[in-house]
Specification:
Elements lengths: L1 H29 L1
């Protein structure tokens, strides 16, 4: 149902933003 899809979507976006944050952090530390 909707609840399951929302939960999966939230986990996906959380992991996505976590990866972006790590990439940005690596980029800033290299500068």
């Amino acid at each position: 149902g909707f609840a399951l899809e929302f939960s999966e979507l939230r986990e996906y976006t959380h992991g996505f933003f976590s990866n972006i944050a790590e990439l940005l952090d690596d980029g800033f530390t290299q500068v």
